[in-house]
Design goal:
single chain, alpha+beta, 3 domains, binds zinc ion
Length: 224
């Protein structure tokens, strides 16, 4: 004979089962919605139209805000290189870039409140020639850099052993300013002396005087 209590327990158990089932369903749906799973299951390649749009928006962004452009550009290239760019992701990139360029969510009309920032001329650091430089931190740690010019823009790379690593626009400018403050020659000669390579051309220095100076005789006669 069933008691009221038994019925109540049964009812509770049934309700708990139902609740657990709902929870499992919700979890499964959540998993499907997660980007990693979605990318894996329906990895549609980027369309040519999307690539063209992204390139166009990046060009626009470069004119509007070169610092944001730098970050966006590096990130986009890295995503492509890592094979993580697909149709969904590209669509998100387009949306984000459009926002940065001041477009409305839909279409190609500019937001009414969008104010194109006045572009400040990029400091060319003309007083700092292309070459190799080193900076000594207050704690005595020395960092090594290569400064070059690419399509009229100054490029700073960080050197670790024989590998050069890219440095973003803002950090690059900070380093160029530090080189200027320390003294261009001092920074260059520090590089040459610490590494044993000419601070202008990067050739290994063997001559006693050249090693003491941090620059080879040819470069010393040509430039400084
Ligand atoms: Zn040299």
């Amino acid at each position: 004979m069933r008691t009221v209590n038994y019925d109540l327990d049964e009812f509770r158990a049934a309700q708990e089962d139902e609740f657990a089932l709902e929870e499992r369903k919700a979890e499964a749906i959540d998993r499907l919605r997660r980007p990693s799973f979605r990318d894996f299951t329906r990895m549609e390649p980027v369309t040519d139209k999307q690539t063209m749009l992204i390139e166009r928006l990046l060009e626009e962004l470069k004119e509007i805000n070169v610092e944001v452009y730098d970050i966006a550009h590096d990130w986009y290239r890295a995503e492509i290189a890592a094979g993580r760019m697909n149709k969904d992701r590209a669509s998100e990139v387009v949306t984000r870039l459009k926002k940065h360029c001041g477009y409305k969510e839909e279409g190609w009309a500019r937001r009414a409140d969008f104010v194109r920032p006045v572009s400040t001329p990029v400091e060319p650091f003309e007083d700092i020639p292309d070459g190799y430089y080193a900076l000594r931190d207050p704690d005595g740690h020395v960092r090594f850099f290569r400064v070059s010019t690419y399509r009229g823009k100054r490029k700073v790379q960080s050197q670790a052993s024989d590998t050069l690593f890219p440095i973003n626009f803002t950090s690059g400018h900070t380093i160029l300013r530090q080189i200027r403050e320390t003294g261009m020659r001092d920074s260059a000669f520090l590089y040459g002396r610490e590494i044993g390579r000419c601070c202008r051309c990067g050739h290994t220095l063997t001559d006693e005087d050249s090693r003491a100076a941090g620059i080879g005789p040819y470069c010393a006669s040509k430039t400084w």
